[in-house]
Amino acid sequence: MKKAITIILIVLxxxxxxxxxxxxxxxxxxxxxxDPDYGDLLTERNDSIQTDxxxxxxxxxTSEIKWLxxxxxxxxxxxxxxxxxxxxxxxxxxxxxxxxxxxxxLCRTESQGIVVEKEMTKIQSD
Length: 126
What we know:
Elements: H1 2-24, E1 29-33, E2 42-45, E3 49-54, E4 59-69, E5 72-80, E6 92-101, E7 104-111, E8 114-124
Antiparallel strand pairs: 1-2, 1-8, 2-3, 3-4, 4-5, 5-6, 6-7, 7-8
């Protein structure tokens, strides 16, 4: 019985490590969204800054990134280019990569008790 439990723990540890390694591939790059509700939203991210742009509306939102783990990070909005978006400054979002499918990821975003899942496609690497 102890041997079976040890084997299960080893398998789970290896699986978690593999997921973390895959998440690292999505830390930086340029991403689009599969859901048409997000329109032409493009997200560009390096290790410490994320920029969300809506080209059709001319909007740009810049956020700082704090990585909580290889698959989870927090963004804090620090700059917007439109007065209508100023209420977003200081807003925090916690995003977790919950599934990886080739060049796509399923993310769970939480802010102020609201949870949204969205699919992102990596369209360019840095």
